[in-house]
Each structure stands twice: as structure tokens, then as C-alpha cells.
Amino acid sequence: MDIQVLQKTISKLLAGDKGILAMDESIASCNKRFEALGIPQTLEMRRRYRELIVTAPHLDEYISGAILFDETIHQQVTDGKLFIDVLLEKGIVPGIKVDLGTVPLAAFPSERVTEGLDGLRERLAEYYRLGARFAKWRAVITIGGDLPSSSSIYTNCHLLARYAALCQEVGLVPVVEPEVLMTGDHNLYISERFTRRTLNFLFEELYKHRVNLQGILLKPNMILPGLTSVDQSDMITIADTTVLCLLETVPAIVPGIAFLSGGQSPEQATARLNVMHKRFKHSMPWKLTYSYSRALQQPALECWKGETSNVPAAQQELVKRAALNCSANRGVYSA
Ligand code: 13P
């Protein structure tokens, strides 16, 4: 592994105030979002939607990297150019989701484990050949009752570490995504406890698997109360609890942290990122940015509705959200 190759990619991904656009929804997830808006769930509609995204004017001013899905990495815009080449021409680094989604963890009802290690070395080499320079693997940790179990946290972190080591071997930057889910009625402090435990396990596993921490990006959840919690926290508590937890668990040598949005509204995801930058501008050793899917895309998707005539307006919505998140990265966002 040549660490300089990984670092070159990372410095492009962390350039300026830019963030990463996650457009790697699986076919099922993309269809679910289409269904909610009455958009036909076909291969061609998914292609058109992704074309809208990659061709959005000025996207490259705010977005440094885009995470594709296997279906999307092979697709083309209407004039025949591959999406990946459209991104490369704009200077946006193409990435690829390489996990194969989650399945129930045997013997642990209600918990999930991410699949995709079998044949991963060969798939990573192929994605590198196609032009991808970073990868993503998402693990989910569920809170509720006596969950999460230590087994679920350990197993998911172990898999993340093995994935990360394989990525670095082939020259892809691993984006390591342990998502402690927002679903549930737990409060912020429960989320903090399990996020902390997960990140502690994760960095121990990364260390054991000889993953070079200078050559990864972490994609964690913000620390938030559960979606149905009666105990909703204010913005400053969320920002402080999140950054303090990351300061305690993520080694300073890690170059960057890019949050997932996880079910927050676009406005919340931007405003909370902004407060973190405002309050911790000079005390964070790593770069802090965003790698949102829903919080960047949802307004654009709602505007598009599957209609060609809505494409320019939908592209504006997408680029607007990206620009607002860049303002949040400077701590100067206002709603
Ligand atoms: P959300 O921002 O919608 O949580 O998606 C991020 C992501 O990449 C999930 O894997």
C-alpha cells in the first residue's frame, strides 16, 4: 500500500469547505424514495435521476466526491458518457459503496450485520480500474431495550476493519461508516454511550488489522436523541456532545470525519454541522465535513418528481443544499 496515493485522494476529498455527496442508495432504497413520491421505480428513472445529480451545474464548487452504487457506476448520461467520467471531468472524486447491505445477525434478533467481504478484494480491484478512488461500507447499530449487544458492535467493527484493510491494499480510501441509528425513543445520552462504545471498538479493530489511520475517512452519525424520544435536545447540546465524543474516541491522526445525515431534515443536518464549527473551530484535529445522502438530495428529489421539465429546478435545490453545508463548514450558515 502506498499511503501517499491514499493521502492524495483524501486531500482532494477534504479540499476547502467541500463535502461528499452520497448517491449510493441501493436499488431498493432508491425505489422506496421514488415510491413515496409516486415516481416510477424503473432502471431508466433511476438513471435519469442520477444523471440530474451528476450534471448539476456548479456541483463541483461544493462537492469534492460522490459515492456511487454498482448500478450507477456502469451507467451513462444521455450523450453516452459514463457518470464516472462526468464526475472526473468536473474534478469530483468518484467513490463506490462496496458493502452488500445488511442481514439479520444470527442469534441476535433485531440486530443486523453488513455483508460483502466474500470476493471483495477482486471487486475493489475492478472498481479501482473503473476509476473509483474511495469506497464506502456501512454498518448499523440498533438502539432499543437491551440493544445493542456487544456481539453486534464487535462483529460490525471487525468487518469494517477487514474492509478498510482490503481497500488500502488496492489504493482505495476506505470511508468507514459505523451508523448508530436514530430510530427509537432513546435520549441523546444513550446515543452518546453507544456511539462512544462503537468508536472505541472500531479503532481497536482498525489498529489490530493494521489499517493506516492516516489513510481513512470516518463517516459517523451525529449524536442525537432517537426520532421518537420525548427528550429532544437543543442544538448546542447536540453539537457539544457529538464533538466531545469524537475528540475522545477518534485519533488525531485520522484526517477527516464526514457525517451521515441519518434521517435528520436537511435544515437540521446543516444547522447542527454549523454549530459544531462555530464552537470547535480551533479545537478539532481532523477536518469535519458532511457526506449526506437524504439531507442533500431530498429537496431535489421532491422538486424533480420524475418530470424532465423539473430537472433544472431540482438541480438548483441540490446545489443550494450543498452550498449551505459548505457555509456550515465555515460556521457561517444562517437558515
Ligand atoms: P444519509 O445521509 O441519508 O444518512 O445517507 C448517508 C449514507 O451514506 C448512508 O449509508
UniProtKB/TrEMBL annotation:
<keyword id="KW-0324">Glycolysis</keyword>
<dbReference type="Pfam" id="PF00274">
    <property type="entry name" value="Glycolytic"/>
</dbReference>
<keyword id="KW-0456">Lyase</keyword>
<dbReference type="InterPro" id="IPR000741">
    <property type="entry name" value="FBA_I"/>
</dbReference>
<dbReference type="GO" id="GO:0004332">
    <property type="term" value="F:fructose-bisphosphate aldolase activity"/>
</dbReference>
<protein>
    <recommendedName>
        <fullName>Probable fructose-bisphosphate aldolase class 1</fullName>
        <ecNumber>4.1.2.13</ecNumber>
    </recommendedName>
</protein>
<comment type="pathway">
    <text>Carbohydrate degradation; glycolysis; D-glyceraldehyde 3-phosphate and glycerone phosphate from D-glucose: step 4/4.</text>
</comment>
<comment type="similarity">
    <text>Belongs to the class I fructose-bisphosphate aldolase family.</text>
</comment>
<dbReference type="GO" id="GO:0006096">
    <property type="term" value="P:glycolytic process"/>
</dbReference>
<dbReference type="InterPro" id="IPR013785">
    <property type="entry name" value="Aldolase_TIM"/>
</dbReference>
